[in-house]
Design goal:
Blueprint (H helix, E strand, L loop, with lengths): L3 E4 L7 E4 L2 E4 L2 E4 L20 E2 L24 H6 L4 E8 L7 E8 L5 E11 H14 L6 E9 L12 E2 L5 H8 L9 H6 L2 H8 L2
């Protein structure tokens, strides 16, 4: 209980206070009181979600600057949940052909099939970050959280450095899907089904 206050770009006065908050990564994160009411019969693809771009680049060191162009977020995945994000753009690469070692990335691929300029996570992997999102979701069962896994690649190398040969990987690959589902996530890879789902159906499919 209590009250926390801090600077905010969302307040006309530049200052915001809230009485309901969670401490995430040493910071008090406000829990929003106002929500957008959307009927459960609304199609999922027509429903508004706050989504972060290249969500896992928050794990790259340094600050959000022009020079640090691959970094698009500063809070961890769970920190972004606390800030209100409910949809995540996760780009992954399988290292050493090992689906137990899947890292996050933000890089371009050169025409010769080698990794170009960008970033691959060192310490953060699917295996050691997704469980935190699962735990958060279980503590907030009324929240629907979506992960868009895309730009999937695989390499035989143990590290995906600049000029490392890499190959495109179908993000629907059963081995990749299993890497997420064994951590407690639910998965759907059929665009046809996703396009027909309502919010209620999506919530039902996401139940843990």
């Amino acid at each position: 209980s209590g009250m926390v206050c801090g600077s905010s770009g969302q307040s006309p006065s530049g200052f915001q206070c809230c009485s309901k908050f969670e401490v995430i990564e040493g910071m008090a994160s406000c829990i929003l009181h106002e929500t957008i009411s959307v009927s459960g019969a609304t199609l999922l693809r027509q429903s508004p979600f706050l989504m972060t771009h290249d969500s896992a680049t928050s794990y790259k060191g340094g600050h959000l600057t022009k020079a640090n162009f691959v970094k698009t977020a500063s809070a961890s995945l769970v920190g972004q949940l606390a800030c209100g994000a409910r949809a995540f753009d996760l780009r992954v690469i399988v290292l050493n052909n090992n689906f137990d070692d899947i890292r996050f990335h933000h890089f371009n691929v050169k025409s010769n099939g080698k990794r170009g300029v960008g970033w691959v996570s060192r310490d953060q992997s699917v295996a050691n970050t997704i469980p935190e999102m699962v735990s958060w979701s279980r503590m907030h069962p009324d929240e629907l959280v979506l992960l868009s896994v895309n730009h999937c690649y695989i390499t035989a190398a143990k590290k995906a450095k600049y000029n490392t040969p890499i190959h495109s990987l179908d993000c629907r690959d059963a081995r990749l899907v299993q890497a997420f589902t064994k951590l407690g996530m639910r998965a759907e890879t059929s665009c046809h089904r996703l396009n027909s789902w309502t919010l209620d159906k999506a919530r039902q499919a996401a139940e843990m």
